[in-house]
Each structure stands twice: as structure tokens, then as C-alpha cells.
What we know:
Layout: H1 3-13, H2 17-27, E1 36-39, H3 49-64, E2 68-73, H4 83-95, E3 104-106, H5 111-123, E4 127-130, H6 134-140, H7 158-170, E5 179-182, E6 197-201, E7 215-217, H8 219-230, E8 234-238, H9 245-255, E9 263-267, H10 279-287, H11 302-308, H12 312-322, H13 333-347, E10 349-351, E11 353-354, E12 357-362, E13 371-376, E14 386-391, E15 394-398, E16 418-421, E17 426-434, E18 440-448, E19 465-466, E20 468-470, E21 475-482, E22 508-516, E23 528-531, E24 535-539, E25 548-554, H14 559-564
Helix pairs in contact: 8-9, 12-13
The structure holds one RNA strand.
Amino acid sequence: MSDNSTEKKSVAKTRNFIHELVEKDLLEGKNNGRVHTRFPPEPNGYLHIGHAKAICLDFGTAEKFGGKCNLRFDDTNPSKEDQEYVDSIQEDVRWLGFDWEDRLYYASDFFDDLYNFAVRLIKEEKAYIDDQPADLISQQRGTPTKPGTESPYRNRPIEENLDLFERMKKGEFQNGHCVLRAKIDMTSPNMHLRDPLMYRIMHAEHHRTGNKWCIYPMYDFAHGQCDYFEGITHSLCTLEFEVHRPLYNWFADQLADGDYRPRQIEFSRLNLSYTMMSKRKLLQLVEDKLVNGWDDPRMPTISGMRRRGFTPHAIRNLVEKVGITKTEGMVDIAVLEHAVREDLNKSAQRVMGVLDPLKVIITNYPEGEIEMMDAINNPEDESAGQRKVPFTRELYIERDDFMENPPKKFFRLAPGTEVRLRYAYFVKCENVIKDENGNITELHCTYDPASRGGNSPDGRKVKGTLHWVSATENVEAEVRLYDRLFSVEDPANQKDTDFRTLMNPDSLIVLQKCYIEPFVKEAKPLDYFQFERLGYFNIDKDSNNEKMVFNRTLTLRDNWTKQMG
RNA sequence: UGUCCCAUGGUGUAAUUGGCAACACGUCUGAUUUUGGUUCAGAAGAGUCUAAGUUCGAGCCUUAGUGGGACAACCA
């Protein structure tokens, strides 16, 4: 009902500077009113939350203007790429809720077209083969402040270039023997225009084209051209490609016949505090086994976040909250966490679990009796219904829900005080049992039979309501608690420090024996829950009936813990 | 000795030039609550990097500074 108005509001808020540029193009009648974008990952790693921003923007912009968005794998460097990544990327994009329909492309689909285009440029004296080694070419390129100098091979005759290029393709040369360069301007203030490389020799097996090719196009020569071949109108990318734009346009001008030109527009990438978003470094974490794979719940990868219990809706919501600009900033991880809690609070099934058990014996409750208490599945959603929770003489409560010498404003159980066991009874602590070391081993309590369901007919109130689990009727589970992987706000930007030393040693805590109400037996992997008063959890993908494993997605906000410092 | 980009509360974003700036997160109060959650009510917090200019009027336009970032991979 009110959902409609919030929907409208959020759609209106999605407007950004890219939408304005697209609207302007449309108004000027460019591209026959077409809007066509693409999401172009290189399959050299798993997608992370930063990619989610690009995905939402690419697909979102197309959708907003009734256009289309392609998925394209930018697979021009076979030495780093792999089919595993191709598969995971598709799974993750779909999971986020986007659909490229039948428009799945690979840069490698266009290798022939790119080759032909290169030949054309050679014939037009706009490209040449350079036989110099990499370091010499690099030297001649100059620096950002000093102009470059021309290669001695720059004015090679067309026929010789054609011949050499063909022999490059045929595999007559070894890696690094020569390259194809565009002939532009070695004195340009823009480094990328100083005769950029178009092709290099790489004798490597490609995950799709196998050994068909031993020369591969460079990013600048492939990307814009693929945009052109696919009919992309707006090529959205991150800020670091801003300086590439003149080159992007130069190639487009050489290639284009009519009026149609793809247009590159840049936006700032997502930076999240305490989060590492470099594929290279994430790969290193995986390879060094500092995490348990790309989908480790601590990873900022889409697959890791999925396993952790984050929802696609929450991730898309974060992207919307963060907005699209060219300002490079650092988004507080709290914004993401808020988006997750906001979503989970509305949708998560409530359940009671005890992570650190303290046994409670209800001395005046009959031994062997099991009472099924009614519990609400989700107070935010009446349609979620109710369930039964078994209540018995012996129970577990959370160890820190009891204090022998409670400070003021402690609402929970203490000697002589009365609290409510949620959905069950009022109980009063009569006796504290300790072992020889003085550690509390169990509590003896009495219950008020008249308070069944959690209210006393005499109207008396209690300060606290505790969650609990029957000590005999329960599910035993392993629970994994996660904290941030890095303990510094900007782990990517610590110069001179190995980022691995910045990792939080307490980022993963495994609790072996925890007790959860029987209800969870019916759930399946990746289902998520809110454990009353403890936080959001989901069932790990590796969980099974013999061993249930839960991941803690996030804690609940907790004022009491905050007060305690 | 360059070229390009950016600059609004702590953070991220808004603001047809025309009432000294709005929203979200975070923070802090208070109320309600069978989750110290949620919800609700409220508060604090910037005068828009600086300077000059245009204008009756500038966060927005101009110029010059300042600060930050990108660019010198046979990576993308």
C-alpha cells in the first residue's frame, strides 16, 4: 500500500548526472533514440560489491530509458582469465536481479573484426609494427610531463607492416618480438595518445578461442570497438578511464561510417570503509588461503555476501543510497549494514537461539513435560504466521543475560529478579549454582504458571524479556560469527604496508555448540533468520541435517552493549 | 614540468541563480514495545575549499588560487 509511494520516491531519487547526459542525447536525437549499455567485466576474478554499483548503473540506465544492456566478457588477456570466473559472474549478475536476455557477448567474439580493423588502419597508414623491446618503447613514450619520441619503425612501408602483422598472427614470432601500434602523436600531452599498443603477441591458450590466436588486442583497441560492434550508445565506466576517452574517440572516429558513435561516460567507483575492493588483492587473499575462497562470508564479493546472508535488495539499495557522481569518496560501511538490516528486519523469520548457553532449571516445573508455546514468526509481517516452541523444565539462556551483581539499568536476570521468557512464562531466579572454581554452572528458577504466554493476569510487569531454548528439545548447531576482515578504515590505501598485516585476526569466530529451537530443521541453506535479540543469521551453503551451520550476517543494534562500552 | 577530473554537516548525496541549504547514514534525547530490535517524536551538527568578479541576488556563472585524484602495464 504505502509501498507504492516509497517506490515512486526512490525511483525519482535514482536520477543522476548520467541520466541527464542520456536525456540530453535523446533530446538531440542521437542514436535514433536508442539507449544501449553494457556491463563489461574481465573474467579474471569474482564480482564484488564495487561491481554491483556498475551493474546497477548499466542495467538501471538502460531500463530507465527503455533500452537494453548487454553482458560482455572483456576477455582479451587469456593469461589471467578463466571459465570459472565467467560462470560465477553470470550467476552473480542474475542473483542481483538483472537479465541480459540473449545479449551475452565476449570480446573474443570480435577477434576477427578487430583484426580486420587493424589491417585497415595499417593500410591507411595509421598503424605500424614496432620491433623494439618493451622497455625501449616505454622509454620513448616519455613521462606525463615530457613528450615522447618517435620509434624508428614508425614510418615503415604499408606492405612491410601488413606482412609482419600477418606473420605475427601466424605465430612466426615469440612473445614480445614486436607489437602493433596506432600512429597518433608521440608529443601529445595525453600519454594514451602516444602511439598506443593495439596488439601484442601472447602464445597462450584462451578459455574460449583455444589456440586459434597468438596475438591479442589491448584494452583500448578492443573495448570501444566492441561497444561499436554491439551498438552500445553509452559506455559507462569508472573514473580511471577518463584519460582514455580521447583514445576511445580516436578509434571510434577511424572505425565509424555514419553518425553513430558510442560514448564513454565515467563515474566514481564505490569505496567502502574497512573493505578491500581490489580484485588483485582479493585474489591474493584467496591464493594465500587467508580466507576460505572467493565466497568466504567475510569477502566483499557478491558470492561472499550472498553466503553471509546479505540480500540482493539490500545491495541494490546501497547503490541507490550512495548515488552516482564523479566525486571520489569513502562510503561508511554502516550504510551497507543499514541497508541490510532494513531489508532483513522486514523479511527475516524470527527464531530463538542460544549462542553461549547457561542452563536454567525451573524447579517447580514437572519433569518430562513438554509444552508447545505459540511464537510469532515475524512481528513486521503478520502473514508470516506462527510456530510452536517446546518449553521444558531444563532450558538454556544466554550466559550474559544473567548477572550476579547487576549494575543499574540491567533489565535481565539477576538473583531474586523476575523476567519474562519470551512466549513462555515469567521466571524468577532463586538460586545460583557454582562449581568449585566459582563459575556459575546453572540457575535454579521458579516459574509463575499463571503467566503462560508471557503475561501475568495480575498485571505485574517485568523489565526484561529473554530468549531461550529447551535444553532437551533443540537443534545443535555450529555458528560462525564474522567481523570486518580489515581493521583499518582504508586498507587499500596503506602505502608501504603489506595489506595482509592489516587483517583483523578476530574476523572469524566459530562457536561449536549452540542451541537453536527445532523449527530451523525445516529450513534450507541460504535461508535467513533473525535470532531474537542476537542478530541476523543464515544457514551456510555447506550445512546439512547432521551438522547445521549458521553464519551471522550482522548483529542487531544494541544500546545496552553500547552503554557498556 | 604537462593533460584531464573532482571539491556542499562526521560520511554519502540533493538543491529551475531569486527566502543564509534538503535527504539518508551515523551521533544524542525521549516515548511505545513480549526482541535493549522495530516504530514514533525530537535534537545537535555545514553556511557550500579560498579570493576576486558578474548580478538587485551566487552552492550554482567567470577567472585565479588551494587541496585531492587519474595518466609514464606488451593489464583491464
